[in-house]
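User: Here's a chain of 403 residues. Predict its fold as tokens.
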Amino acid sequence: MKYITILVDGMADYPIDELDGKTPLEAAEIPATNSLARRGEVGMVKTVPDGMAPGSDVANLALMGYEPEVYHTGRSPLEAASMGVELSESDIAFRCNLVSLEGEGALESRRMLDHSAGEISNEEARELIELINEQLGSDSLRFYPGVSYRHLLVWKDGPWGFELTPPHDILGQSIADYLPGGAHGQGFLDMTARSLELLESHPINTKRKERGENPANSIWIWGEGKRPQLSSFQQRYGLKGAVISAVDLIYGIGILSGLEPIHVDGATGNIHTNFDGKASAAIEALSGDTDYVYLHLEAPDESGHQGSLKDKIRSMELIDQKVVAPVHAALAASGQEYRILILPDHPTPLSLRTHVAEPVPYVLYDSRQAGEEKAQRFSEASGKSSGRYFSSGPNLIGHYLSK
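Assistant: Prediction complete.
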């Protein structure tokens, strides 16, 4: 039996007047996914436990089969694992975004324009983060360059006690009420203000503004955490697995659980990612001795954060065309039994431009049980009307991976 989870990050949404009351998922042309839904199982799953923030770290842990209440110790340590940064038990890791702040004057007077600094290139970002590390780092504080706007800060033997806000939660808002706080927040506040001075007039940002792109004119520190201890996925589920993504967070969960990380050239985490390459990598892995692939696709989530209805719909259509259809065709032609699970980790409603903790729809297709077609498609409404509901991600994953 082969298994593939196609995780379409942030796909779920709310009905939109512009779409005559449909959600983007309902408006998207996704024939391959809807074909699986008609011959498969559609339902709803709660991916974010009560009392936990609806981050991709929490939700993807749950959908890889791990209870966030037990295993979640923060987002950044998961990213550190993917980046090959070793953390001791006393180290604290933080996500460090390069962001675009709009306005003039002091830090407190600015607004959060873009949490991704216009999805800055890896090369530009590396130069800026290396400058930040040179000017703001120390023997105990070190900045590590990551992918695009996503970077890492590690505080060796660091303290605990911060009040930090994800930048994608405050898009378009004044940052004055969301600056670093808590018992040890003043140092990060000072570093953020200093980063604005260092980056605002940097030649990279001057050129970005000349090209009409958002500048990476500040850092934004958030997502603190300590090194987690995940049990082995293979021991837990009896399957040899792999993970494919463009995001350090997802690779980090996979690495810590013993999944093989498979990297794809041109994988960006946005609508311009290498969808074909990701699908090919998944097909190749499943054609060998890999039993299970977790294929993560970020584009709908990024489109949701950017507030782009057009890109959110288009990204789902590209995933259906370039990922779902060829993966299903390859598995069907393999002669092996297989299951395909397609779902988002959380909704990222365009009206809010951030994550919410509401349950999400899923479709589960089993090649052994595909029978007569049902009058259903893959959507939020279809999931709710099905009557099938899993109260946690691990419960759904146990059902999906059962022999």
